[in-house]
Amino acid sequence: MPQFAGATMPGTPNAVAMAGVTYGYDRARAVLTGIDMVIPRGKVVAIMGGSGCGKTTLLRLIGGQIRAQAGRVDVDGQDVSALDRDGLYALRRKIGMLFQFGALFTDLTVFENVAFPIREHTDLPDALIHDLVVMKLHAVGLRGAASLRPAELSGGMARRVALARAVALDPMLVLYDEPFAGLDPISLGVVGQLIRQLNDALGSTSVVVTHDVYESLKIVDYMYFVSGGRIVAQGTPAEVRVSTDPFVRQFVDGEPDGPVPFHYPARSYADDLGSRAA
Amino acid sequence: MQTIWAAVLPSALANGLRRIGNGSLHAIARVGFATRFFVAVLRQTPAAFRRLQLTLREVYFAGVLSLVVIMVSGLFVGMVLGLQGYDTLNRYGAGDSLGIFVGLSLVRELGPVVSGLLFASRAGSAITAEIGLMKTTEQLSAMEMMAVDPLARIIAPRFWGGVISMPLLAALFSVMGVFGAYLVGVRLIGVDNGTFWGNMQAGIDFWPDVTNGIIKSFVFGIAVSLIAVFEGFDAKPTAEGVSSATTRTVVGGSLAILALDFVLTVFMFRGVG
């Protein structure tokens, strides 16, 4: 499949660009090896792969929560690894992030959760903050839930509130960590559509880390498949649908065995049975 | 037989030494991390006081919500002190000295120490559990990703909320203790009212008795609050991790209070006698 050139305007840096990125939580084992990835502005891009393949680690590298041990991660044209704390915080003001389970502040109401980044980073008067928050909540369909506490929300509602909070400051880039995990079919469709619509309405760029193939195929512009810490396939949804790549086919069709084996590495079955008999 | 021991003993010894070495390195690294953490929290002090409502909110949670347990405990400790103190003093014909005995015991020692232990159990554990759960549910990470420093927004206000609350709670504990001793000594046993208060007034000086008690409670407040916020921040983001961190706060906080109390007492009262 071709490399994703995208539609970033000439002379404007890509929203995210990774070159030769390697990272491991301990020195003995690399989680990611030699990752090259381009995410042009204005696009919705999915990073897909099985559990523990390094997808969330990629998001953490983009957000500067961890630093690449080799290679380079550029966000909005800035080398994330080279930024000091103030530089990183300045960059993060242009980034929104939706965490897997929302990560809403449990001591604040829905309204105050969405208002939180606005209050922290602006000196806007309360009346204006009120209107901005109401607009964001209206966009995710939860204007009527403004006074509720996070504990009173369903999983899907919490995800939508977190989405409203992630886009509260109209970020240049929005990172989604497993936005579809654990949602019922209706909530799943709602969150998927919101990701696409908000991306287009705000003119931002979205990176969606997920293992939900079918929902992603409906909303994204491009997909990267990660396995064993490497990008093993990539393409547009149309290319992915007709791909004959064994990994893509196994992932899309949900086959139990294939390039990703069903069995965890072990000595032979016969040996194990034999040793038990002995 | 001898050959087996010769093979096993060095290996067991090496394993034991390795465990001790690993444990020591881990402990040193943790103390180093805690020290850096403490410095980082102190550097966020201006942020905690610039947004005073955040710190005052923590004074409410750590201090005001601890009032009941502190005041009731103070009352009972004072009542027991009144009974036991009178019984002992009366054997030497000094029952009238109950006031000064109770006052000095509470202001110098029992007030700061017992209220510190209660504070570690009631407020310290709550602070650790809250921060640990915020970490487990990725609220601290979310804050970081919003370019909001959790040390400034969450940790420093809780630390200073605890430090401010502790001397006030210790003072209230002592007041309630004195009142408890008065109820038992004067009202129940019949010690003369004027003697009780007069001896207390004459025998207790603001400097050094009261001020040393305040200094002690302030130091205990720093120790317990630091342990509470550090353990929460450093907790493993699992249910078991938060539970262990909460236990470490109560145990570590209590031991720190008792150890610091001895050290402070040595310095404060070395000239006495």
Q: Can you walk me through this structure?
A:
The complex is a heterodimer of chains A (278) and B (273). Chain A contains ten helices and ten strands. Chain A is globular, with a radius of gyration of 20 Å. Chain A has helices at residues 55-62, 85-92, 110-121, 126-139, 155-166, 185-202, 213-219, 237-242, 246-253, 269-277, and strands spanning 16-23, 32-39, 44-48, 70-75, 78-79, 95-98, 173-177, 205-210, 222-227, 230-235. With 278 residues, chain A is an alpha/beta fold. In chain A, helix 3 packs across helix 4 and helix 6 (185-202) runs parallel beside helix 7. In chain A, the strands form two sheets. Chain A has a six-stranded mixed β-sheet with strand order 6-7-8-3-9-10, sandwiched between helices. With 273 residues, chain B is an all-alpha fold. Chain B has ten helices and no strands. Chain B has helices at 2-43, 45-50, 52-62, 67-91, 98-136, 139-145, 150-189, 193-203, 206-233, 239-268. The radius of gyration of chain B is 23 Å and the shape is globular. In chain B, 43% of the residues are buried. The mean pLDDT of chain B is 92. Classes of the chains: A alpha/beta (278), B mainly alpha (273).
Question: Outline of this structure?
Answer:
The complex is a heterodimer of chains A (278) and B (273). Chain A is an alpha/beta fold and 278 residues long.
Characteristics:
heterodimer; A: 278 residues; alpha/beta; 6-stranded mixed beta sheet; 4-stranded antiparallel beta sheet; 10 helices; 10 strands; B: 273 residues; mainly alpha
Please outline the helices and strands.
The complex is a heterodimer of chains A (278) and B (273).
Chain A: E1 16-23, E2 32-39, E3 44-48, H1 55-62, E4 70-75, E5 78-79, H2 85-92, E6 95-98, H3 110-121, H4 126-139, H5 155-166, E7 173-177, H6 185-202, E8 205-210, H7 213-219, E9 222-227, E10 230-235, H8 237-242, H9 246-253, H10 269-277
Parallel strand pairs in A: 3-8, 3-9, 6-7, 7-8
Antiparallel strand pairs in A: 1-2, 1-4, 4-5, 9-10
Helix pairs in contact in A: 3-4, 3-5, 4-5, 5-6, 6-7
Chain B: H1 2-43, H2 45-50, H3 52-62, H4 67-91, H5 98-136, H6 139-145, H7 150-189, H8 193-203, H9 206-233, H10 239-268
Helix pairs in contact in B: 3-7, 4-5, 4-7, 5-7, 5-8, 5-9, 5-10, 7-9, 9-10
